[in-house]
Structure formats: C-alpha cells, structure tokens
C-alpha cells in the first residue's frame, strides 16, 4: 500500500527529527561541526603601574574579561610588581579557567609614611588557542581569577551554553583548584 503524499511527508518529517535527535550528541565529532572550547593559553601583553598611595589606589576605567585595573597592598610604594598566568583547567575543556597572580616584592627599608601603602596596576591579557566555533552552537567559556599576593582579588568570566551553577562560581573557592594544568603536566597540591 502506497502512502498518500501528506502521510508520506509527515512520516519523513518524523523520521528526520528522530535521526537528528539520535546523532545530535555525536555531531560535534564530525568535520566542520563544533567542539568549541575556551582559549588554550592566556598571555600577559601589557603590565604597568598606574599609581601609588595609601589604602586603595582606585581607577575610573572599567575592567573587561581580559583587562584589569587593580590595587595591591605592598610593604612600600616602591615595591616591584610581577604577574604570571596559570591555567587551572585541563587542555580541551569547554570551560577554560586561569589564575592571574600579581605579586609584590620589596627589599630594603620601608620608607612609606602611610599605614597601608598600595600600588595601582593595569594588566592586559591575550587569549589564544582553543578550538574554533563550528556550524552548531556549543557550550564553552573562560574564567579568569585574579590573585594578589596570594589572596583572592576578583574574577571575570564569559560563557555560552554552560549552566552558571556548574562553574563552581567565580569566587574564592575557584582559587582552590586541586590541580594545575600546564603543558599537559599535572601538579597536585599538597593536602593537609
């Protein structure tokens, strides 16, 4: 018995929908489709002192995902500042997580006359790597945690298709990841 054109169309649509749902999970493995990830690397492109003072050295320039204007407590206002970036998510993860460490070092006598000397700074970061977007949308994102002299200082994040509740937030607990991933080497943190 031959199907009528209208029934044939309905059956074809239902079969197509069922096949689409059946392969939706594996379509990202096909060439040309997406397994989009966040960036693989985050490099410091600019780092500068923006001022010194007592207490917090503020900035009127807003931060962005890859740029931060901060103020770090120091022993003296002539303290040297350094910055380094550490990846804390495994390569290829949908959510790329990084820690940006800003440290101050002061050698010699303290000459500051204020109780809480601080240095303002600006750091600019450049993301690279990761897999590109494909034809279908895919969950991906990046979180950047800022740590000043070993203390949580702030966080920025951007993601698409990832449940914010599943990202472990963007707070102090993010800085306590048990592993550091760099060049495919895992370093476990000591447990007490």
TrEMBL record:
<protein>
    <submittedName>
        <fullName>Uncharacterized protein</fullName>
    </submittedName>
</protein>
């Amino acid at each position: 018995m031959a199907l009528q054109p209208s029934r044939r169309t309905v059956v074809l649509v239902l079969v197509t929908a069922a096949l689409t749902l059946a392969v939706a999970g594996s379509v990202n493995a096909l060439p040309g489709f997406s397994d989009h990830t966040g960036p693989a690397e985050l490099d410091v492109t600019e780092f500068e002192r923006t001022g010194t003072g007592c207490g917090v050295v503020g900035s009127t320039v807003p931060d962005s995902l890859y740029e931060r204007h901060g103020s770090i407590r120091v022993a003296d206002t002539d303290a040297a500042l350094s910055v380094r970036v550490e990846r804390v998510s495994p390569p290829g993860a949908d959510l790329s997580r990084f820690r940006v460490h800003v440290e101050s070092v002061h050698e010699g006598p303290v000459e500051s006359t204020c109780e809480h000397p601080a240095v303002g700074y600006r750091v600019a970061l450049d993301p690279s790597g990761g897999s590109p977007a494909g034809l279908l949308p895919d969950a991906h994102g990046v979180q950047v945690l800022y740590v000043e002299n070993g203390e949580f200082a702030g966080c920025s994040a951007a993601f698409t298709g990832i449940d914010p509740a599943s990202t472990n937030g963007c707070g102090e607990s993010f800085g306590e990841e048990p592993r550091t991933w760099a060049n495919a080497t895992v370093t476990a943190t000591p447990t007490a």
